[in-house]
Specification:
about 100 residues; mainly alpha; about 0% strand
């Protein structure tokens, strides 16, 4: 009779161990799925940000090129354009003053 009880106890303990391992395995698989999903979202967001960064760099380079072109044209115009001078005013006549 003792051997029957020992067999029952061993069966219960092994069943509990298998249930515990199944529980841990299930949670590990679920955690791995969550990590993979989060990683996929992060990678997609990273690709979007890289695209935006590359677009911003292209825009910056384009604006720098346009700025350099305009600066060169401005220097060329400044070198060839006459420098305007202010007209000199004649002093106003004071009342009662005669000119010689």
């Amino acid at each position: 009779m003792n051997s029957v009880y020992i067999l029952i106890v061993i069966s219960i303990v092994s069943t509990l161990l298998m249930a515990g391992f199944a529980f841990l395995w299930h949670h590990e698989v679920r955690a791995r799925e969550i990590v993979e999903h989060t990683l996929g979202d992060a990678l997609a967001e990273n690709m979007v940000l890289k695209g935006a960064r590359d677009g911003a760099r292209l825009q910056r380079d384009k604006l720098n090129h346009e700025n350099a072109t305009l600066h060169a044209a401005l220097e060329k115009v400044q070198m060839t354009a006459p420098i305007p001078v202010r007209p000199v005013r004649k002093p106003a006549k004071k009342e009662g003053e005669t000119t010689q």
